[in-house]
Specification:
The complex is a heterodimer of chains A (about 230) and B (about 350).
Chain A lengths: L7 H54 L3 E7 L2 E7 L3 E2 L11 E2 L2 E2 L5 E2 L5 E7 L11 E7 L12 H4 L12 E9 L4 E12 L18 E12 L6
Antiparallel strand pairs in A: 1-2, 2-7, 3-4, 5-6, 7-8, 9-10, 10-11
Chain B lengths: L6 H55 L7 E7 L2 E9 L7 E10 L2 E10 L11 E3 L3 E3 L3 E3 L8 E3 L3 E3 L4 E3 L3 E3 L3 E2 L3 E2 L3 E2 L12 H5 L3 E2 L3 E7 L8 E5 L3 E8 L1 E6 L3 E9 L5 E6 L3 E3 L5 E14 L3 E16 L2 E6 L2 H4 L1 H6 L8
Parallel strand pairs in B: 5-8, 5-24, 6-9, 7-10, 7-25, 8-11, 9-12, 10-13, 11-14, 15-17, 16-18, 17-19, 18-20, 19-21, 20-22, 21-23, 22-23, 23-24, 24-25
Antiparallel strand pairs in B: 1-2, 2-3, 3-4
Classes of the chains: A alpha+beta (about 230), B alpha/beta (about 350).
């Protein structure tokens, strides 16, 4: 059988089908990559919100009492810790406290130890300044912390200037002294776009698939010895 | 030969892409769920460990748990292993409780120092009363956050003067005002029944004493119940007291001069069936004082140097500073030897 060349119609048809197929594959790839990137971004904000909430709640759970302090119109959470510190974790945070004495009913008395503060401020870490940087500060008295009291390793990765909570936009607290418990609400926000994996809270992006995800985690934690 | 289409290729690409999306979504979901699952079990394990500690304390209070102990419990579906040991070398009347909670596939360990469950008594506080307590003068108990616990069986009302409690403030009724309390304010707290004192109990085996003035005394050493002096009528008390002993008066006691211990080993119980009145010239008293009726303090400023005061009611006409002597708290048998109401008979 004699072979013959493609006709123009066959060629055009093949090119059209190939273009459609290629276009579909590219769109599919972009869609998959974008969804994956969005998923990673959402996971990142979830991890930051969860880790910050866990750290704050762990402090509250070990505290003798908590109170809200107004510093320059901004609200900070101050947790008074027991006097005698016990075991620490790998980051040097105290995870166990030892009672100072026992009450007449043999209930643990904890004394008054360090004051641990959580608040949002600017990059200096001074409470009362305007900013969204989430800070932890430690003092041995009731005075308002200064920048020297800030635990920078909690807010920044060790020895670096890379901010650890870059996706957290707000942290709010409520205290119920009667029930001896404190509520923590941490909100994180991420604008996921294209195939950018990490996400960026303030990115300006023109890609149609760019989307902002906001996540709020609220938790209530009882103080130490919440039951008598 | 006919040209075949490439449908299989398209299907393979679509399946691959779909699989990638599903895997990514599944991994994220699993990661989030695992984190929450761990968090749930961590919190649950903490409360299970708390429950185990409460079980230990209530078992000790009921006399149902000997030390050292190693117990396996099931609490709210979680397996808990509890190891209890005596910690009184480091802290009197305390226990070390080590809990290991098995939650799912995870193990959570916790170690706590807690009090050994004990029955509360008035003489475990520096000041304890059965009725209402209106504090209209300056009051400071204890120092540096300890040895200043107060119990009030009725309502406690703070007037305009400073009230500082270095320790816990327990009020069975209502608390009015805002005293400075370094420990915990517990109001309303469970009541403690006020001990009933019978003169006849103290008369047995005691040394009869004439009514009138007692200006210092040296108690004769005794291993069993400490030497007890007994008076039927009113007594005026003052002076320095040496050794360990008891003064019981089946009437009122007036403290007319400073009362001091001779040394750090001296301990004394002063028990009045009715009232104790501290006269205005007195500045310092040592000892455990019990007044079946009212304890009145007239001095502008009185210091209870080392001891405790228990009364049905307080009437403070001047400032009071009091520091608890933990002698009987550390060893309740001493409370029996001192014939303190609530410990003895």
């Amino acid at each position: 059988m004699a072979s013959r060349a493609f006709t123009v119609v066959e060629l055009l048809l093949t090119l059209t089908l190939t273009a459609i197929l290629a276009g579909t594959l590219v769109s599919l790839y972009v869609f998959v990559a974008t969804r994956a990137a969005h998923g990673v971004a959402v996971n990142n904000v979830l991890m930051q919100v969860r880790e910050a909430t866990n750290d704050i709640c762990r402090t509250i759970a070990n505290s003798v009492r908590c109170e809200l302090v107004n510093v320059g119109g901004k609200t900070a959470l101050k947790c008074t810790m027991p006097e005698q510190e016990g075991a620490t974790d790998a980051r040097g945070n105290v995870v166990e406290y030892i009672p100072k004495s026992l009450s007449p009913r043999a209930i643990e008395q904890w004394g008054v130890g360090k004051r641990i503060w959580f608040y949002q401020a600017d990059a200096t870490g001074v409470p009362g300044t305007t900013g969204t940087v989430l800070w932890k500060a430690v003092r041995v008295d009731d005075a308002v912390p200064s920048s020297a009291d800030v635990d920078r390793d909690w807010s920044y990765y060790y020895g670096s200037t890379v901010y650890r909570w870059n996706l957290i936009t707000s942290a709010t607290f409520t205290v119920n002294p009667t029930a001896r418990r404190t509520s923590v609400s941490v909100t994180g926000s991420v604008r996921a776009r294209g195939m950018e994996e990490r996400g960026d809270p303030s990115a300006i992006d023109t890609i149609d698939m760019a989307q902002t995800y906001t996540l709020t985690m609220s938790r209530e934690s009882f103080w130490l010895r919440w039951r008598k | 030969m006919r040209q075949r289409g490439s449908a299989i290729l398209i299907v393979l690409v679509l399946v691959t892409a779909t699989t990638l999306v599903v895997i990514a979504a599944a991994e994220l979901t699993i990661s989030a769920m695992t984190g929450q699952w761990r968090r749930y079990h961590e919190v649950h394990a903490r409360y299970v460990a708390d429950a185990a500690v409460e079980w230990v304390q209530s078992s000790r209070q009921a006399g149902a748990l000997a030390l050292p102990a190693n117990q396996s419990l099931t609490i709210d579906g979680a397996q808990v292993n509890v190891v209890v040991s005596d910690n009184s070398v480091s802290m009197k009347r305390s226990l070390r409780v080590e809990t290991t909670v098995l939650e799912g596939d995870l193990t959570f360990k916790q170690s706590r120092i807690v009090g050994d469950g004990i029955e509360p008594k008035h003489f475990y506080y520096v000041l304890a009363c059965d009725g209402n307590f209106r504090v209209d003068k300056s009051l400071t108990t204890g120092a540096a956050g300890r040895l200043g616990d107060i119990f009030c069986g009725g309502n406690l009302t703070k007037g305009k003067f400073q009230v500082t409690v270095n320790g816990d403030l327990e009020v069975a009724g209502t608390l009015s005002g805002s005293p400075v309390v370094t420990g915990t304010i517990w109001s309303p707290c469970p009541a403690i029944s006020f001990p009933k004192v019978k003169a006849g109990d103290y008369a047995v085996g005691s040394v009869p004493m004439l009514d009138g003035d007692i200006n210092g005394r040296s108690f004769t050493p005794s291993v069993a119940g400490y030497e007890t002096f007994y008076a039927l009528g009113k007594v005026n008390l003052s002076g320095t007291y040496e050794g360990k002993g008891v003064i019981f008066v089946a009437a009122d006691i007036k403290i007319v001069g400073d009362v001091h211990y001779a040394d750090v080993n001296s301990v004394m119980a002063v028990i009045a069936l009715k009232s104790i009145t501290v006269e205005a010239n007195v500045t310092h008293i040592d000892g455990y004082y019990f007044a079946g009726k009212i304890f009145t303090s007239k001095p502008a400023s009185l210091t209870v140097g080392r001891g405790a005061v228990v009364a049905e009611d307080f009437d403070l006409k001047g400032a009071l500073t009091a520091t608890y002597d933990p002698w009987v708290w550390n060893d309740p048998e001493e409370g029996k030897r001192l014939k303190l109401p609530g410990f003895w008979p």
